[in-house]
Amino acid sequence: MQVGFLLALLGSGHGGVAVQAAELDQIRDRGYLIVGVKDNLRPLGFQDSQNQLQGFEIDIARQLAAELIGDQAEVVLKPVLNQDRLDVLLNGEVDLLVARMSITDARSRLVDFSRPYYIDGTAFVSRDVAIQSLRDLQQQTVAVLFGSDTIPAVRFLLPSVRLQGVESYQAAKELLESGQVAAFAADATVLTGWVQEHPDYHLISPLISAEALAVAMPKGRQYDELRREVNQAVERWLKTGWLRQRIAEWGLPIDGFPSFTDRIEPSIEPSNE
């Protein structure tokens, strides 16, 4: 595979003309899989000290190449920004997305999803060793990002907690460091990376909300085989323990391990489009 040519092709966007996503037989004919991933979100997808992409979702992308192509090395990992994720899939710039994409009704009208490979949700991080459980947060002040979905989740389950809005993760860290707040509430996948980079912090379990992360795939009957193969792969990973092993390896909360009831039926059945 001529990687330089391929990267130039991806960067050019084919002259700005939207192209149709490749079907499974076309992917196999060309001999490589293109997957949109995160490159700045430890431990899902990030650049290591050698500037190589690593992470839980990077492992999934490579394993999908092994399942669909027969060789996990035959994958092109295309970093994507959150706001661009759907566009690159809809424009055919990537074959699949494994980029912390949660399943929502709005997104499901545009793309199909595999069954979940991880259940993300709201967690808490603290540097106070006295705070080890949700009970310890009662009557405490907790930082939350302004306008985030975390706010109603915390208010519903921990009504006695006082909330302090912040504009950024850095602002939350400053409040934690100064002792102005006891904890910070945000997505468990993001906070896991926080703890890995700052070992003086710890996560407080369990998660207080659930948000299914899944592989995003193009809609349309021509992609039925691709969707079926991806879903069967995730099913095997659940049964063999590969998925649980990778979750543990990357230090993610194990309560995010999806159960066999975490099934997204519309993405398994053939598309009506």
Give a structural overview:
- The protein is of the alpha/beta class.
- The protein has two domains: 3-119 and 213-268, D-Maltodextrin-Binding Protein, domain 2 (3-Layer(aba) Sandwich); 122-204, D-Maltodextrin-Binding Protein, domain 2 (3-Layer(aba) Sandwich).
- Helix content is 36%, strand content 19%.
- The strands form five sheets. It has a five-stranded mixed β-sheet with strand order 11-10-12-9-13, sandwiched between helices. A three-stranded parallel β-sheet has the order 5-1-6.
- Strand 3 and strand 4 (53-54) form a beta hairpin.
- The chain is elongated.
- Mean pLDDT is 89; it is low at 1-18 and 264-273.
- Belongs to the bacterial solute-binding protein 3 family.
- Residues 32-254 form the Solute-binding protein family 3/N-terminal domain.
- Keywords: Signal, Transport.
Give the strand tally: 15
Alpha-beta classification: alpha/beta
SSE order = HHEEEEHEHEHEEEEHEHEHEEEHHH
How many H/I helices? Answer: 11
Portion in beta strands = 15-25%
Main β-sheet, spatial strand arrangement: 11-10-12-9-13
CATH names the topology of the largest domain as D-Maltodextrin-Binding Protein, domain 2
Measured as a percent range, the helix fraction is 25-40%
Look at the structure and give the mean pLDDT.
89
How many separate domains make up the residues?
A: 2
Dominant shape: elongated
What is the CATH H-level superfamily of the largest domain?
Answer: Periplasmic binding protein-like II
Radius of gyration over C-alpha positions, nearest whole angstrom: 20 Å
Do you know the CATH architecture of the largest domain? 3-Layer(aba) Sandwich
